[in-house]
Amino acid sequence: MKPALALAFSSLLILQGCAFAPGQYLDPDEFEEGAKTENGNVQLLRITPEMLKGDVVSDMGTASKQELLDFKPTAYRIGANDLLYITVWDHPELTAPSGPQQQLDANGRLVRPDGTLFYPYIGNVNAAGLTIEELRATIARRLANYIDTPQVDVSLLRFGSQRIVLSGAFNTAGEVPVTTAPMTIVQAIGQASVDTENADLTSLTLKRDGREYLLNLDDLNRPDSWLHQVYLKDGDQLHLPYNDQKKVYVLGEVTLPQAMTFKTTSLNLMDAIGSAGGIRQETADGEAVYVIRGAENIATETAKVFQLNAKSPTAFALAKHFPLQPQDVVFVGPANITRWNRFISQLLPSASIVGTGAAADYNLSR
């Protein structure tokens, strides 16, 4: 029986040796700069000073920024559903036909869906598209046929024709009317109030005229911020996403593997590793620090795996300048000795079973 048990033990060693590296790891020695995997949909890249000079994360281009800054609001144009208050001095029957004791709204003139309004003596007036001054002059000119040198004033009681839409992580999301006072992005956001606990401040999206502009609200804390110079116009949509999908996963040989949620400026690789308690010096392979970045459509787009050689502490200067993106996976691989130790730890229970069997066989044969 002893030769049979010895053979079984040898076979077990061979089988366990086939799984020499339990768990997940990448071999830095097989990491070829710019290479792609066999199916061609994953590209391998090293994190180097030269690479960091490129666009690791694309920011909004200078041209797009200038487009936003170039827009300057013009005089308000009257539109359908605006409520106007038209004053004709010394003619209260025209100014307040419902009586001066009524509230202002009762004496307002609503611009109809077709852009017109009715006014005594002069009938229908095409108001849509006119500025307040242009409408005032039009009414005064037509009233001059019935009233000697009419003095006309026009003001807006309620703005109903133009609006901006705010959606997402705002405390009071919804429609904000465009008024005669120009409104900046910062003013609109201040009016709606941001849900700071749950908002992704770095991914504010402005949709305008079929285009989308990605803005970073966290830039408002910086002295060179230009967001307060961006004015909004009719039809603009501001969407501030929640940060529940803005996670980075830190796995492998770190002290505290976890999923991290961040809501301000992009988390860098150094921050992520530090927040996870740092690399486990006794088990980690310093060369095997990876950032795995997927693609929206893996069938047609190329995913990327970035490698950082962190054997030297100076490598973390590079990590500090490597910004992470939502859904990135930071993986720190185990050292060879770590994989060997884990192999042994898996092997020993099996060896103990074999040893127990051998002892039982020895005792029974005596």
UniProtKB/TrEMBL annotation:
Compartments it resides in: Cell outer membrane
Stretches assigned to the Polysaccharide export protein N-terminal domain: 73-156
The UniProt record lists the SLBB domain at: 162-239, 246-332
Q: Which UniProt keywords apply?
A: Cell outer membrane, Ion transport, Lipoprotein, Membrane, Palmitate, Polysaccharide transport, Porin, Signal, Sugar transport, Transmembrane, Transmembrane beta strand, Transport
Which N-terminal residues, if any, form the signal peptide? Answer: 1-21
GO molecular function annotation: polysaccharide transmembrane transporter activity; porin activity
Major localization listed first in the record, in broad terms: membrane
Domain named Outer-membrane lipoprotein Wza C-terminal is located at: 337-357
Domain of life, per lineage? Bacteria
* Cellular component terms per the entry's GO annotation: cell outer membrane; pore complex
What is a biological process (GO) this protein takes part in? monoatomic ion transport
Stated membrane topology is:
Multi-pass membrane protein
| Protein family per UniProt | Belongs to the BexD/CtrA/VexA family.
What is the name attached to this protein's record? Capsular biosynthesis protein
- What species was this sequence derived from? Stutzerimonas nitrititolerans
